[in-house]
Amino acid sequence: MFERFAGNARMAVVAAQEQARELRSPEIRVEHLLLGLLQQAEPRLRTLLAQNGLTERNALRSLGTAGEDEPLGAGDAEALRSIGIDLDAVRESLEANFGADALNRAVPSDESWGLRGRRRGGRFGHIPFTRGAKKVLELSLREALARREKTIETGHVLLGILRAPGPVAAELLGGSEGITRLRGEVHTFLDKAA
Questions:
Q1: Residue 68 belongs to some domain of the structure
Q2: Which of 73-77, 95-99, 140-144 shows the lowest per-residue confidence on average (mean pLDDT)?
Q3: Do 136 and 85 belong together in one domain?
Q4: What are the DSSP calls for 122-144, one per residue?
């Protein structure tokens, strides 16, 4: 099926894998596919998404990862506090014992990747798709076939996401109301592109 993907759609799937890796996810989820689209979709489709309040930056911020240099965010700190662990005190202790940049040095660099994508002391470089992400890719094919189009474009992948977004992607897309509105706009976008 992957051979039916057009260039940008194929690059979006590859970008989804990179997003999952950067976000340290053990699998490629629907929200990673959405992030991949936000990076690799045609400019007109990215503009359409931005007009609906969805940009890569906003999506990353919503996922709690944009602009955070810290491995743990505010939600994590609150959860730890509820069981008696003060994350700020832990950070201060680490910095006092190991230096001010101890937490930055703890994040693996690109140099820690070995041959063939295998990470030293870690898991193999291939990241599997979740069942939901696989379903989105299958739905992308169905959307293209339903429109009698031979290749799967980024718009078809987005339609697949809109049909089976999963809870995280659904929230990023503005819930059921946003999904319904965006679905109509994507069909119009594909009609104009054809």
A1: no
A2: 73-77
A3: no
A4: S--S--PBPHHHHHHHHHHHHHH
